[in-house]
Amino acid sequence: MNKITMKMNADELILQALREDITSEDITTNSVMPHYQAGEVDLICKQDGVIAGLEVFKRVFELLDEQTEVIFRRKDGDTVCKGEKIGLVRGDIRVLLSGERTALNYLQRMSGIATYTREIADMLKGTKTKLLDTRKTTPNMRIFEKYAVKVGGGSNHRYNLSDGILLKDNHIGAAGGVKEAVKMAKEYAPFVRKIEIEVENLDMLKEALEAGADIIMLDNMSIEDMKTAVELCRGKAETECSGNVTRKNAAALVDIGVDYISSGALTHSSPILDLSLKNLHAI
C-alpha cells in the first residue's frame, strides 16, 4: 500500500480508529508517563504466518506523531515465524503506548487474512483458477482486508457496488427472471461492463447463456453439476464457483476447471495472526 493510497484512502479510516480508542486522552498512559521520554519497543510474532499491513501499522504511529520511527525486518507477503522480531518502533513512549492496540489490531487482522488466503491460493497453484474475495468485509475495513487478500496471493472481486454488475438471486427475483435480469442489465450498463449472474442449477445456467451473460457464478452447486456447467460455458462465458468455500473444502474444487473461485471466508472467517509489542524501554 503506497503513500498516495494511504493518504487518499486510508488515513481518515485510521484516524477514526484512533478516535474510537482515544476520545479525549489515554488516561492510563498519561498517569504513568506525564512527560516526553524517548523509547523503543519490539514487534514480535507469536505464531507462524504471512505478514500484511506493515505500512498501516506504521501509519498509526505517524498520525499520532510524525517523528515516530518504525523499522521493519520483513515486508508484506513474507512468511514469519513464532518468536521472530520483525520490527522496532522508536519514539515518544506516550505515542508507543497509545497507538499500540490500534496498530496491532490492523496488523493482526490483515496478516490473518493474508495467511488464510495463502493457504487456499497454494492449493490452486498450477491451475488456471484464480482465487477471489467478496464484499463480505468488515465495515470500514474493506480497503485493508482486500489489500491483505492480494498480499496473500488472492485477487480482488469487485470493490463495491459501483465497480461491477453481479446479478444475484434477489436481483433476478426483482427483474422477473434470469433472461429479464440480463436483458435489463445490458440495456442499462455501459458496453464496457461485463455482466455476471448467479445461478443455482443447470436450467438457470442455460437461460443465462442464452441471454448473453459474460460470467456465470455457480452458487452452491454440486461438484458434478459444476463440471457440467463448465463444459456448457466453454467458449461462451467465464465461470466462477461460489458458496461456502473454505480451506477445508477448497481442494475438492481444484479439478472442476472454473476460471474463478470466490470465498467470503477469506475476509469474514480468517483468524488473526498473533503479534505483540514487547520489551518497551526508555532510550
Arithmetic mean of pLDDT: 95
Q: Would you state the CATH class of the largest domain?
A: Alpha Beta
How far apart are the termini?
31 Å
Biggest sheet: strand arrangement: 6-11-10-9-8-7
Helix and strand sequence: HHEEHEEEHEHEHHEHEHEEHE
Report the sheet with the most strands, covering strand number, pairing sense and barrel closure: 6 strands, parallel
The count of helical stretches stands at: 10
Total domain units: 2
Query: Which CATH-level-2 architecture of the largest domain?
Result: Alpha-Beta Barrel
Instruction: Pick out the low-confidence regions.
Output: none
CATH homologous superfamily identity of the largest domain:
Aldolase class I
Rg calc = 23 Å
The CATH topology assignment of the largest domain is: TIM Barrel
The structural class is alpha/beta
The number of distinct β-strands equals 12
Structure report:
It is a single chain. The protein has 283 residues and is an alpha/beta fold. It has 2 domains: 3-116 and 271-282, Aldehyde Oxidoreductase, domain 3, CATH 3.90.1170.20; 121-268, TIM Barrel (Alpha-Beta Barrel), CATH 3.20.20.70. The protein has 10 helices and 12 strands. The chain has helices at residues 3-21, 27-32, 54-64, 93-123, 142-151, 169-175, 178-188, 202-211, 223-233, 265-268, and strands at 38-45, 49-50, 69-72, 79-80, 85-92, 130-132, 165-167, 195-199, 215-219, 238-242, 260-262, 275-282. It has a 6-stranded parallel sheet with strand order 6-11-10-9-8-7. The model has no long low-confidence stretch (mean pLDDT 95).
